[in-house]
Amino acid sequence: MKLQDLFRTLGASVREYKRDSILAPVFITGEVVFECLIPFIMAKMIDHLGGTGMGPVIRYGLLLLILAACSLICGVLSARFAATASTGFAKNLRQDIYFRIQDFAFQDIDQFSVSSLITRMTTDVTNVQNAFQMMIRIAFRAPLMLIFSVVMCLAISPRMSLIFLAAIPAIGIIIFLIMRRVIPFFRRIFKKYDRMNNSVEENVSGIRVVKAFVREEYEKEKFWKASEEVRSDFTAAEKIMALLSPVMMFFIYLVMLLICVIGSQIIIRTKGALLTTGELSSLMNYGVQILASMMMVSMVFVMITMAQESANRIAEVLQHESSLTSPANGRTDVPDGSIVFDHVSFRYRRDSHSNALSDISVHIPSGSTVGIIGGTGSSKSTMIQLIPRLYDVSEGSVTVGGHDVREYDLDSLRNAVAVVLQKNVVFSGTIRDNLRWGDAGASDEEIQRACHLACADEFIDQLPDGYDTRITQGGTNISGGQKQRLCIARALLKKPKVLIFDDSTSAVDTKTDAAIRRAMAEEIPDTTKIIIAQRISSVQDADQILVLDDGRIAESGTHEELLEKHGIYREIYDSQVKGKEE
Amino acid sequence: MPGPMRQPIRGGNRGPGHPRVPGKGEKVKKGTFGRLLRYLFSIYKGRLTFVAVAIIVSSVTGAAATMFVQRLIDTCITPGIQNGFGSVAGRMARILVTMAVIYAVSVISAFIYTQILAVVTQGTLKKVRDDMFSRMQDLPIRYFDTHPRGTVMSTYTNDTDTLRQMIGQSIPQLFTGALTILSIVLIMLYYSIWMTLAVFAAIVLMTAVTRKIGGASAYFMTRQQNALAAEEGYIEEMIQGQKVVKVFCHEEESRNEFSKLNRQLFEDSAEANRAANVLMPILGNMGNILYVVLAIVGGFLIVLRAKNLSLRGIDVVTLGVIVSFLGMARQLAQTISQVSMQVSMVAMGLAGAERIFELIDEKPEEDQGYVTLVNVKKNADGTFRESKSQTGMWAWKHFHKADGTTTYVPLAGDVRMEHVDFGYTPEKEVLHDVTLYAKPGQKIAFVGATGAGKTTITNLLNRFYDIPDGKIRYDGINITKIRKPDLRRSLGMVLQDVNLFTGTVMDNIRYGRLDATDEECIAAAKLANADSFIRRLPDGYQTVLTGNGSQLSQGQRQLISIARAAVADPPVMILDEATSSIDTRTEALVQRGMDNLMKGRTVFVIAHRLSTVRDSDAIMVLDHGRIIERGSHEDLIAQRGTYYQLYTGAFELE
C-alpha cells in the first residue's frame, strides 16, 4: 500500500484527538526553542561570571529560570497531549476495526480468518500506537533540535559552525548505511524468530504426542538447531547495530576536540573578541545535542519502518468493504416461512473454479419440515446459510416468504430466520444472558418455555444457580450436548418463521433428539424447520428429505420414497441401522 | 554521553500479549538479580569481565575528559588572553593530545564492549531458550495441565524479550550511569565541596520527584494492563463468535459493550502514558534549574572571593572551576534521568527472569525405572540373549538386584491393573478401585460419559501420571520398574486431539519411527487408509502441513495420526476415538484404518461411538471413576444395565 493511502486511511481515526495531535508537536517546538536558548544564555552568564558585579549574572540567571520554567511547561504539556493523542488514536483505531468487523459478512470473516483479525486488533494496534506517539513527539523534536542547535551555533560563531556542517552529513551517511543494512536483516530474522516460537507453541500443545512417541531428545535437538540459527543471525545483526554507539561517540569526541583546538586558538588570538570562553562551552553543548538528535532521527525512522507492516494490516481491514449490505428501505416484514431455491449456484470466491453449490432448486412450503443429509463437503451448511443471507448466491435466487432475500432489510430477515450453527458458541455470562441474545426483552416464562422445548430445562434446573449460572469463556463448564440445547433454546426465543438446525443435535442422545423434534412439530407448527443431520433417525420423519452430494441435490423425497430408490440415502441408512438391529 | 542506544525493534506479528508489568503486590523474589548475574557469568565469565572493564574505562575516561576542558580554560585560555598564544602553546598542545588519547581510549573501549555485549546477549538468550525448552521436554504432563499454553508461550516471547532488553541495554546503562555518577561526584568533590553539597540537595529532590511520578506511572500501568487484558479477552471471545453475532443481529450490543471496555482502556492507558511521558521534561528542566542555581552560587563565590573547600585543600573559587562544575552538573542530571528510565525496565526484566528461572527450576519427570527394552535372539534352549542388531524380537531386560541375575522377558503385551485408585490432585480421586487385565492380542474398550475416567486409565498405563505402588503390571513387570522411554516405545497412542507438526506429511508419519524409510511410511499410510487422500494432496507426501494441519479435515488429520502410530508398530495400542462430527463415510474410513492397526495387538479403545466396541473382548463401562459393568457386548446387552441403555440411545454418551 502506498504510504500516502496508509496515512489517509489510518489518519481518519485521529478524529477528536486532532487537537491533541497538533498541540503536542506545537508545544514540542516551544520546548525545543527554549531548550536551545538556554545554553546560549548560559554562555552569556558564564562570560559575566568572572566580571565585577553580580548584577548581570542574576539578570541572566532569572532569565534562565524563566526559560527553564517555560520549557518545563511546554514539555509537560506536549507530553500530556501526546499521551492523550496516541492512546486516543489507538482507542479510535480499535473501535473502527471492531465496528468494521461487525459489518463484515461471513465471507469477509472467512477471508481474514478469526485469529488474524484478533492480532490486527491487539498487537498491530499497539505497534501503530507507539509509532504514532513517536511521530508526534520525537519525529518533531529531534529534527527541530537539530535545526535550532545549528542555528544557535551559527549565531555564536559561523566559523566554528563549519565543524558541525562538515560532521552532520558524514554522520548522516554512516547512520544511513548502517540502517540500510540492518533493517531488512532484522525483518528477515524476525520471521525466523516467529517460526521458532511457533514451533515451541506446537510442541507445548502436542506434548502428549512428543512424550507418547518418546521424542523429547529429538525435539530438543530440533529446537537447539532453530535457536542456534536465531542466535547467530541476531548476533550478526546486533553487531552491526552496536556499531552505531561507538561511531557516534567517535564523532562527538572528534567535534569536541576540534572545537577545543580551533576555539581556544580563536579566543586567545582575538582576545575574546570573536569567541568567548562561555561561547566555547555552549558550542560543546550544542554539539552533543546535534549529534544526539541525529541518533534519534535514525531511531524514529527504524520504528516507523517497523510499524509499517502493522499499519498495512490494519488498513486492509479498514478499507475492506463488506461484501454484503442491507438494501436501502428494504422490506421489514417477512410474510411467512416458505422458501424457494431457484436454480441456485454458489462459489465461495469469485475466482474459484468449482461451485460449492450447483443448480439447486427446491420449494419448501411454510410450516413444513425438511431434512438435509450428506457427507462432509457436500455443502449442506453452505446451502442453508443462503437463507438468512449470510452469503449471497452467485447465480439464481433464494426467496423467503415470497420475496428475494436481497429485498429484505438484513436484520428483519435474520430475525425471521434463526440458525443454530454447527459450531456452537456461547458467551461468558449467565445462562439467562446467553438466552436473551434471542430476545433481549424475553420474560422468565418465555425463557423457561424455550428451554423446555429444547430439553435444556432438565439440566439447567439441576445447576445450583439455575438460569443465573455463569458460563465461562468458550463454555468450557458445560458439555457439548448441553451447549447444543442452550443454542437451540436461544434460537427459539427469536420466535422465527424459519428455524434451521445445522447438525445441532449431534451430541444429544437419540431420545432427547427425538423429544426436541416432537416439541418442534407440536409447539411451533407454523415455523418452517430445516434439519441438517448425520443420523438418519434425525431426519426420517421430515416432510421432505434432501440428499446432497458434492453441492448438488442427489436425491429428494420422503424417508420411504428414498429407501425405495436404493441410492445414497439407502446406503447411509444401511450403514447406520445394520449395526444396531442385526 | 550517549550510552549504547539499541532500541528494541519489534518484529511483525507475535500474537497478542504484552510484557507483564509486576503489579503492586507482586514483588520480584530477592536474589533473582544475583542469580541472573551468576547465570550470565557461568556462560561468559571471561567476556563479561572484559565488558565490565571496558565499561569502566569508557565511562571513567569520558568523565575525565571533562576535567581537561577545565584545565584548558584555566591554564591556557585565560592566561593566553593576557599573555598571548605563544606563552601557552606548548601546554595547550599537551592538554589537547592528552584529551585526544583519552577520547580514543573511550571510543575503543565502547566499541569493544558493545560488540562483545551483542554476542553475550544473544548467546545468553539462546542458552535461556535451550535451557527452558530442554527442561520443558522433561517435565511431567501434570505441568502442562496446570500451566496454560499462553502463559508458557509468554515466557518464551515476552519474558525473553524483556530479558534481552535488560542484558543488552538496561544493565550496561545502569552500570555506566552509576560509574559516571560516581566519577562526576569524585571530580566535583575534588573541585569544591560546597558546590557538591548544593548539587546533592538538587539530586535528592530529583530522586523524590522521579519516585513520585514513577509510582503513579506504575499504578496506572497495572490498571492499563488489567484493562487491556479485559478488552483483549472480549475481542477474542466476540470475534471467535462473530458468526453467531451476525445470526442473532447482535452487532449493536456488541459495539456498545466493546465501546465501554475500550473507553476504560483508553482512560487508564492515557493516564499511564501521561505519567511516563512527563518524567523526561521534568527531569531535564530540573537539570537546567540546577545549572542556573549553581551558576549564581558560583558567581557569588567568585565575586566574594570566597574560600573554597575541596579535596585539594582550601583555595579560591576560579572561573574554570565554575564552568566545569556547570558542565558536570548538567551531565549528572542527564545521567540520572537516563538511569531512572532504566530502573523500570530492570524491574520488568527481573520479573521476566524470575518466570524464566521458575520454568528452568521445575522438577523434571521422575523415572526410577531400570528395566529396558532390547532386541533379542532366541537360544536353542528357549532362553533369550541380547542382540545389537534388529531382530524383530523384543524383550524386557530385567536386572534383579537381589541375586544379581538378568532375565529377558519377551515383549507380549499383557497388561494388568489391580485395585488402582488415582486422583490428579490429592483432594479429588477420579479412579476408584479399578481392576482389569488384558491378555496379549485382546481388545479392551472403555465406555462412559466425559469425565468418567476413561482417558485417565490410559494415562496411567503409559505413565503420564505415576501411581505410587506396583498395581500395574506389564508382561508381569511392575511398570514403575520399566524405564519410561522404553515403556512408551512399546505403547502406541492415537489421541483424540490430533497434533500434527509443521513439516511434510511424510515427516509427520515418520515421527512414529525416525529411521523408517519412505516405503515403510507409505505402507503405514496404506494400512491406515490414508494413502489415497494423501496422494490427492497438491504435493502428495511432500505436502507441507502448517498450523496443526489446518488445511486438512478432522478425519484426514486423524488418518495421518493413525499412520504415525502404525509406523511405530508397537505391541500395545491405545486408541482414543475422535468425537467431532466426522461424516459417516470418512468415519468408516477411519474405522477401517483403526481396525487394521488393531490386528495382532493388545488394544485399549476409548469409544465414543458404540458401533466400534461391539467386537471387543471386554467392554468396561465407567461411571464416576468406577467400573460399573464389564463383559462382552452380548453379556452386557443381556444384563440390561447402563450399557444397554447407552446402546439403545436412552443415555447421552458425551
Describe the protein.
The complex is a heterodimer of chains A (582) and B (654). Chain A is α/β, with parallel strands linked by helices. Chain A folds into three domains: 1-154 and 309-322, ABC transporter transmembrane region fold (Up-down Bundle), CATH 1.20.1560; 158-274, ABC transporter transmembrane region fold (Up-down Bundle), CATH 1.20.1560; 339-581, Rossmann fold (3-Layer(aba) Sandwich). Chain A contains 20 helices and twelve strands. In chain A, the strands form three sheets. Chain A has a six-stranded mixed β-sheet with strand order 6-9-10-3-11-12. Chain A has a four-stranded antiparallel β-sheet with strand order 2-1-4-5, with no helix packed on it. In chain A, a hairpin with a 2-residue loop joins strand 4 (395-400) and strand 5 (403-404). The radius of gyration of chain A is 36 Å and the shape is elongated. The two termini of chain A are 65 Å apart. Chain B has 654 residues and is of the alpha+beta class. Chain B has three domains: 32-361, ABC transporter transmembrane region fold (Up-down Bundle); 372-410, no CATH class; 415-647, Rossmann fold. Helices cover 59% and strands 13% of the residues of chain B. Chain B is built from 17 helices and 18 strands. Chain B has helices spanning 32-83, 85-137, 141-146, 149-191, 193-240, 242-247, 251-303, 319-361, 454-461, 484-489, 505-510, 518-527, 531-536, 554-568, 584-598, 633-639, 642-647, and strands at residues 307-310, 313-316, 372-378, 384-386, 394-399, 406-410, 415-422, 431-438, 443-448, 472-474, 477-478, 491-494, 503-504, 544-545, 572-576, 602-606, 618-623, 626-631. In chain B, the strands form five sheets. A six-stranded mixed β-sheet of chain B has the order 12-15-16-9-17-18, sandwiched between helices. A four-stranded antiparallel β-sheet of chain B has the order 4-3-5-6, with no helix packed on it. A four-stranded antiparallel β-sheet of chain B has the order 8-7-10-11, with helices on one face. In chain B, helix 15 links the parallel strand 15 and strand 16 (602-606). In chain B, helix 1 runs parallel beside helix 4 (149-191), helix 4 (149-191) packs antiparallel against helix 8 (319-361) and helix 12 packs across helix 14. The longest helix of chain B has 53 residues, at 85-137. Chain B is elongated. Chains A and B meet through helix 2, helix 3, helix 5, helix 7 and helix 8 of A and helix 1, helix 2, helix 4, helix 5 and helix 6 of B.
